Amino acid sequence: MRGSADPVRELLADHRALCAGAVDPLEIAAGLEASGLTDRAAARFRHRDLFSLAEELYARAAAPAEAPQPAAPAPRRRPLRHLAPLLPGTLCAAALAAGGQRPALAAVLGAAAIGAARVVLFRRRPPGPAALWALPPLGFALGGDAALAALAPGAAAGAPGPAAVALTLGFAAAPAVWCGGWFARRAAGLLAASRGVAEFTARTRGLLAAALLAFLAWLLAVQAAAGGLSASAAGVASVTAAGLLLGLTVLLAAHGQGRAAAAGLASAGAVELLALALAAAAWLPLPGTAEAAGPLLRLLAAQGTAAVPALACGGAALALLAHAARALPRAAAHHAPRGGP
């Protein structure tokens, strides 16, 4: 690179496929940023930032006789589509209302709520590992406390009731979609307006923080309405951590980070299943089982059964939050691939 009369031409040769197939300079900027180039590296190519360099690469790679593409028609607004994320929570509320007198109807509505949540949360991408690994933490959130309480009679009380958990997680689908969509639209607008990767990254981190704070505020508001805040601190933390974990999963999966989202869900589910296995093993007349389950039983006696999902989902959520803080402010995470949505 040093001493080259035209360093941009060499860069164009190295990224010929990217530049030739790009539909606009933003796609090239995202690809260069994903390959490790930064605004500082752009100075070696005699440009002030990565976006300016991408514009020159796009201009050089464009065919001289390329005809302008007709503008795509504006998508029609569908008001009902914005209300669809409320469907899982509405079905959960209906199932709880019908549970006392019509158990069969409550079971059908509960199953429909789970199916609706999967469709709403992962509708833009085919059901992948993240959609499947969400089932164990959800199942534990709904029935894990009762199972642990049965296996460990000395566990302290304080876990929120199943109704509060179901309503909170059911209605968590709405802010997950709304906040995620708001973040994606604002980040795409910043990508078009920013003149440097550093500027875009800093402003996108602020958007990410605002979206997550709004999501947390919604979770706490639904818990308050459902009576879940009357539980212990560990109980409130368990439901909040489970909701935050699901929200981060949706956010990461929507930006091409489905593997990381699935890994976070799988780790939370593994910790919860391990806790159930240890509590069950304590009943077996085998050497060493009581000692292995001792720390768990002491935790349950001190903090209650809600401590297990609080630690499992909270730890996984913190790991996904750290990953999101690194991955989502990158330009490559916000440029839709060709042919994509």
What does this structure look like?
- The chain starts with 6 loop residues before the first helix and ends in a 14-residue tail after the last helix.
- The model is unreliable at 63-69 and 337-341 (pLDDT under 50).
- With 341 residues, it is an all-alpha fold.
- Helix content is 70%, strand content 0%.
- The protein folds into two domains: 9-61; 126-333, no CATH class.
- The chain has helices at 7-14, 16-21, 25-34, 39-42, 50-61, 79-83, 87-98, 103-121, 129-133, 135-151, 162-171, 173-193, 197-226, 233-253, 258-281, 289-303, 307-327.
- It is elongated, with a radius of gyration of 25 Å.
- Identify the overall geometry: elongated
SS-based class: mainly alpha
**N- to C-terminal distance:** 37 Å
The tally of beta strands, per DSSP, is 0
What is the tally of helical segments?
Answer: 17
Q: Using only CA atoms, what is the Rg?
A: 25 Å
Give unreliable regions as ranges: 63-69, 337-341
* Strand percent estimate: under 5%
Q: Please give the largest β-sheet.
A: none
Give the number of domains: 2
**Element-level helix/strand string:** HHHHHHHHHHHHHHHHH
Average pLDDT level:
80
Brief characterization of the structure:
With 341 residues, the protein is mainly alpha-helical.
Which key features would you list for this structure?
single chain; 341 residues; mainly alpha; 70% helix; elongated; membrane; transmembrane
How do the strands and helices of this protein lay out in sequence?
Layout lengths: L6 H8 L1 H6 L3 H10 L4 H4 L7 H12 L17 H5 L3 H12 L4 H19 L7 H5 L1 H17 L10 H10 L1 H21 L3 H30 L6 H21 L4 H24 L7 H15 L3 H21 L14
Helix pairs in contact: 1-5, 3-5, 7-8, 7-11, 10-11, 10-15, 11-13, 12-13, 12-14, 13-14, 14-15, 14-17, 15-16, 15-17
